[in-house]
């Protein structure tokens, strides 16, 4: 027999199914064959995507050869030491010990059992016990000396992984549950099996001793809490009613000083029971030991724990939430969103001030028990990324798609961006997911549409973290991430933007090149080191000199980050403010662009009527004819043009000249970054991505800046990927792509699988020449939700396929419909055209379907109901 133990989605190709099936199955060894129902359960588990997360080197592990991880395993068990100095965490084939003063890893206890299912310290803290095993091979209890971190003994029992370890009060006995439907009790001294209790009818998941150690309680899939006498191994009583349809019981914990047991499981309701019956069992009084049933949880209960004084308890559930309650009155004290898809383990610090949680995503999180505030979060195991490539992600602000020489713009020189096009892939039809900063940035950093990120406006109080940032995910697997420039996931108005859980170790922050922040503005601090005050520089009619410009500072700090010595892959997020308003290039660069030679904006007189109909829909500037654009600023002096030019046209052309001058400065500083990569020998191993968060109307259709419109110049942006020797060279792809596609692409480059439900779709197949280079999506979407907080705010969505663009202004009678083949400049709005109503209705349905499919589907499904 050979092959992978588990092939996700393919039970017939999975070795484990072959081993447990047939007339004479090879597994379990020396035991009765599994029942048909149990085999069906295995098949269903694999069919629904179970993964074999076994590291390749499992047979050669020890103190000198620890397990290595590309992705973290589930955290199935946590335990604080009685003195609070150590937090024990489950890994693969090892227990990881963290120092609770700084949560640095201080020891790794490696054994033979592949899975760690339960951890518990003895009351005196001298022994750390583990229950686990290797599926379909053996169950194992490990006892570790906490003073020396050495294995005292490993005791094997049963033919499969074991669960729910508990010590007797004097630590002379250890109990655990088994998948063969038994509870076993072993002698710690001589390893003798003292009890084999077989009164359960399904797997047993938990055990706990009474206060005096004379009895134990067990729980499992059969919905029962069984009370057993230790001296005789005899069944005494059912602590609960197992015939009320509560569902399987996954976990139990005993009150620290009282013979009371807290249970939780499939029906989501935690229940507190007396262990010993104090009244006669009468007909109809089936839950006679029940003290209290508490609030229902958001998912199946997977972990429970008491504080050391017994006044509070914690619950972890499959809904991704942990909660803390008062035992006496059931009042909820704190709620903590710990993991989007499941919390499997919870443990209180002995002083009760902190709660540790672990679960599906492999992270350990530490919360303040009084407020529920997240204090710390770290990966449960050291991660070694599968991908070793570095990443330089350059994001300009408000740069249109049509501003790059190699992609057809004859007015601006961009030799360095052009070089990326030459040795990479340029997506000529890439669309942002919102024509405004925060929602667009939150979207492409999470791979999710704005409606799902909950960060769909500028000016929000904080980043909601409904989904993790891709930089956080990469940092968790060992990438050294650095931010240079703008982030803008939350408001920076009259304050420094509060940081999200972003994963950046290197932090050089500048929301905008203004002197609006007394502290925390690294660019302004850098300018001061040069002997200048940023606020004074910004009053210079000739603009900020190139050597002091924020774009130059971004390059300086990126080069500093690239040159750092490190032994891990890195990612640099370079977020340049330009070519964002106020359109203030250095004088040296502005002089290189003659406004008289700049192209006219896209404008017809019919735009006035069109924008007047849409005037109820918010925008940052009023619609004007070209001779009324009124672009005047001390930094943008009016420049003479041909006498035949209208005043407004002069202004529009001056704006465009300044805009192109800023892009040229961006290109020059990008060149310095590329030179540094070459000089340091890192260019061939670095993926370079150049893009922008959204575009700029630049006078088109009588508008400047951005807002609730979806013209190509505003929502279509540059998107270029370059990796020498790895990606296709010189490809200009016309495929419809979205900026959300960057996140899954980065994850796959790092060797990770994008999570289910991510809206973005990896571009790697196109980048590597493995797919149709001119097709990626059938349509693209863009969203706008009261984004700039104007008086007449609006909600709107854009749906664009290969031919048509549909814009719906929700709550307004007006909309937009363009045939982009016949009308690529979007002058002829077909919304009210009688001959196009069938097309409009069909597009409305398609847009509605796309919006529904983009909704946040919530936590991972864990059961049929």
From TrEMBL:
Keyword hit for Transmembrane helix: no
WD repeats: 336-377
Cofactor(s) required, per the database record: Ca(2+)
Matching InterPro entries: Alkaline_phosphatase_core_sf, Quinoprotein_ADH-like_sf, Sulfatase_CS, Sulfatase_N, WD40/YVTN_repeat-like_dom_sf, WD40_rpt
Pfam families membership: Sulfatase (PF00884), WD40 (PF00400)
SMART domains tied to this protein: WD40
Stretches assigned to the Sulfatase N-terminal domain: 391-751
A GO term, aspect molecular function: sulfuric ester hydrolase activity
CDD domains per record: WD40
Coiled-coil regions listed: none
Gene3D superfamilies found in the cross-reference section: Alkaline Phosphatase, subunit A, YVTN repeat-like/Quinoprotein amine dehydrogenase
Cellular component terms per the entry's GO annotation: cytoplasm
Classification via PANTHER family: IDURONATE 2-SULFATASE
Family: Belongs to the sulfatase family.
Protein's name in the database: Arylsulfatase
The organism of origin for this protein: Geodia barretti
